[in-house]
Amino acid sequence: MGKRKVSILEPAATAVAEIAWFIESKGLPQTAKKFVIDAFEFFDELSDERIEHKPCTYEKWKVLSYRCVPYKRKYIVAYLSQQKEIVICDFVVAKLLR
Fold first, then answer.
1. What is the 3-state secondary structure (H, E, C) of 9-64?
2. What is the chain's pLDDT, residue by residue, as a tens digit (98 residues)?
3. By three-state DSSP, how is residue 8 classified?
4. In whole angstroms, what is the distance from residue 42 CA to residue 73 CA?
5. What DSSP character marks residue 3?
6. Parallel/antiparallel/unpaired status of strands 5-8 and 85-93
7. Residue 61 CB-density burial (10 A; 0-12 exposed, 13-18 middle, 19+ buried)
8. Radius of gyration of the chain measured on its C-alpha atoms
9. Nearest-5° angle of CA 53, CA 58, CA 61?
10. pTM confidence score
């Protein structure tokens, strides 16, 4: 199984951090920490070169040739798929894209 390099852009990392901060502000610091760890492990799983996700249907991302994959049915991860690398570009709550 080949793995590509995973790069995470600032908007995606910031979004994960903001969600974790929100969870922590509700008095759940362990849950926030677990959310961050799980999200970044999911990003790493996207590096499998055998798996290719569908292009995004959100118009602004479609123009940029992003690929989208749902995360925990509540979030969407948008990334650029290249031969030797994937670039995680954005991480948003799915409801915000409608």
1. CHHHHHHHHHHHHHHHHCCCHHHHHHHHHHHHHHHHHCCECCCCCCECCCHHHHHC
2. 578 999 999 999 999 999 999 999 999 999 999 999 999 999 999 998 888 899 999 999 999 999 999 999 999 999 999 989 999 999 999 998 87
3. strand
4. 13
5. B
6. parallel
7. buried
8. 14
9. 75
10. 0.90
